[in-house]
Design a protein that fits this description.
Elements (H helix, E strand, L loop, with lengths): L6 H6 L1 H35 E2 L2 E2 L2 H7 L2 H34 L6 H13 L2 H12 L14 H24 L5 H8 L4 H29 L3 H7 L6 H11 L3 H29 L22 H30 E2 L2 E2 L2 H4 L12 H30 L6 H19 L2 H11 L16 H23 L3 H9 L4 H30 L4 H4 L7 H9 L4 H36 L1
Antiparallel strand pairs: 1-2, 3-4
């Protein structure tokens, strides 16, 4: 193609490649610095700067309280239990919904298990309360306001993270390595543990890190189901900020949360670095897994399907309880609460349907921003530089990109209010800009995009890029012909995650949303906090509407993703 640089011409102008990669890394980093790092530093600084001087005595004050250690311990315990259970249940789900032989309704099941992930955490808590309270269907178990209920809700919320992250890679693995192991006499389970699982290890580690971070920073679910008895660092930051206006204690807890997150990310990064390698990939539509003799023997497939079926039933129970509560009108049943969604709620100024339109609009903008920023970061992080210093730099960047998931949304939202009045001395107030809310939601969604796309890009054999360059393809053409096909497929999954996260985001949104233009999660939260059965019924009806929106969105992304891959191949 005219004007396209060849490898020889590129060697004469190495600055072109360096400039391109610098921009690919610099633009997203600048975005995260301005809209994440700066607000967090400003919020934390308010707690550690007294009369213009740095004062760190807050650490001694906060950590001298037994309550602080109890909160930190409960946070780690809940997040660890939820992560282990999500991995144990999610891997069989990834096999059934992505790797096993296709069956009618599989796309619908994929969308269904993703619905809990996009529900506001407060709504998840309310759904479990409706299920587990003494008058609920499972009230006889006595699990209301217990640690078990919280962990179950966290698994309910995060199960799809493992299923979709691991399944996205698993469905593209070439089955011939497993076939060879089986031909040499390995049993299906032995082939899985010695061949398949090591190949999936990076995706499993990425998904586990996401689940841990989501569980450790869960706010509404813990507040509703556990109250102060099972409070976490996240809920304690909110209590100290909004109820006691104790920014010093909130800042200390925010730093503590950041340290824990950084430690988890460091462990995950080391695990990934030791296990990631290029993997042979195929197009899923070109093979029948079970017929190919992979760990898809009938016993393994049936076992995975059984576990997945049980999980799907468990996921359905809180959702069914939520729907039933939304239909309960006095002593009977009806659609009164749904009809009320079209009318402006008292004291809100807008209807739930108008708030739903706002939520979708903001989520679309946030998804586009997150795909651009996260896609560039994933592309940069997928490189394998020869110099040890460059590899360490990429590993550090990988950890930094994940930090938005581990910082309290209260900290980010309040920090944006502090810093966006006159950012960098500019004569502009971004707090009134309609872009600030989608930008804040995109900040949370960027790590999801990176963690979904990165394992797929890193699994590409570098020899494919080398072969394309040897045949005369320039860097741009190599990216278009080698990285783009795999990346675009992963972007379909990433777009679904980003949209879901934005649609149900509540923490930072509650600080930044304009009073006359709230999102649907904010409306649900406000309705939940009002007394009366009508308000509770409207809140659950609005939550059901949010669930339907998320399911439709995930189904659309699945269809677009399938069509994109079909066009590529």
């Amino acid at each position: 193609m005219l004007g396209e640089p060849t490898p020889a011409r590129l060697r004469d102008r190495p600055w072109v490649a360096r400039t391109a990669w610098t921009l690919a890394a610099g633009v997203p980093l600048a975005f995260l610095v301005v809209f994440f790092a700066l607000p967090v530093v400003a919020m934390v600084g308010r707690g550690f700067v007294v009369d213009g001087a740095v004062d760190l005595t807050g650490f001694t004050e906060v950590f001298s309280r037994p309550r602080t250690w109890r909160v930190v311990g409960l946070t780690l315990l809940q997040a660890t239990l939820a992560t282990v259970l999500c991995v144990l249940l999610g891997v069989p789900g990834a096999h059934t919904l992505y790797r096993a032989r296709a069956f009618r309704g599989r796309a619908a099941l994929r969308a269904f298990v993703t619905v809990p992930f996009v529900l506001p955490t407060v709504v998840v808590g309310v759904a479990f309360r409706a299920l587990l309270q003494p008058s609920g269907p499972l009230g006889f178990l006595g699990l209301d306001h217990t640690l078990t209920a919280i962990v179950a809700a966290l698994v309910f919320f995060n199960y799809s993270v493992v299923v979709r992250s691991v399944g996205g890679l698993w469905e593209r693995l070439d089955p011939r390595a497993v076939q060879a192991a089986r031909a040499l006499g390995a049993s299906p389970l032995r082939a899985f543990f010695t061949v398949t699982l090591p190949a999936l290890a990076p995706a499993v580690a990425s998904a586990a890190s996401l689940v841990f971070l989501f569980s450790a920073t869960s706010f509404g679910t813990v507040l509703v189901l556990g109250g102060t008895r099972f409070g976490t660092v996240e809920t304690e930051i909110w209590v100290q900020t909004t109820q006691y206006l104790n920014l010093r204690a909130a800042a200390v807890l925010s730093v503590t949360q950041l340290v824990v997150v950084a430690g988890v990310l460091a462990v995950v990064a080391r695990t990934q670095a030791s296990r990631e390698r290029a993997l042979p990939m195929i197009e899923p539509g070109r093979r029948e897994p079970d017929a190919a003799g992979e760990p898809g023997s009938r016993v393994v497939t049936v076992a995975a399907a059984t576990v997945t079926g049980a999980v799907v039933v468990a996921v359905a129970m809180p959702l069914v309880a939520l729907v039933l509560r939304s239909l309960r009108v006095g002593d009977g049943w009806g659609l009164d609460h749904y009809v009320a969604l079209a009318a402006p709620a008292r004291g809100l100024g807008v209807s739930a349907l108008e708030a739903a339109v706002t939520s979708v609009r903001v989520a679309v903008d946030a998804t586009l921003i997150a795909l651009l920023v996260g896609g560039l970061l994933a592309l940069v992080l997928s490189r394998r530089p020869a110099r040890p210093g460059a590899r360490r730099a990429l590993a550090g960047l990988d950890g930094l990109v994940m930090l938005p998931l581990g910082v309290s949304a209260v900290t980010v939202g309040f920090g944006l209010l502090l810093t966006m009045a006159r950012p960098f001395g500019l004569d502009v107030d971004l707090r009134t800009s309609p872009l600030l809310l989608p930008v804040a939601q995109a900040t949370v969604a960027v790590p999801l995009v990176v963690r979904t796309v990165l394992p797929v890009l890193r699994a590409i054999d570098p020899r494919q890029r080398e072969a394309a360059a040897t045949l005369g393809a320039g860097p741009g053409r190599v990216l278009a012909t080698v990285d783009a096909p795999a990346g675009l497929r992963a972007l379909g999954l990433a777009a679904g995650f980003a949209f879901a996260a934005s649609l149900g985001e509540f923490g930072a949104t509650s600080f930044l949303v304009r009073p006359n233009d709230p999102t649907l999660p904010v409306v649900v939260f406000r309705l939940i906090g009002r007394p009366g059965l009508d308000a509770a019924g409207q809140a659950t009806a609005a939550a059901v509407l949010l669930a339907v929106l998320s399911a439709v969105a995930v189904a659309v992304f699945e269809r677009l993703r399938s069509r994109t891959v079909g066009a590529q191949w």
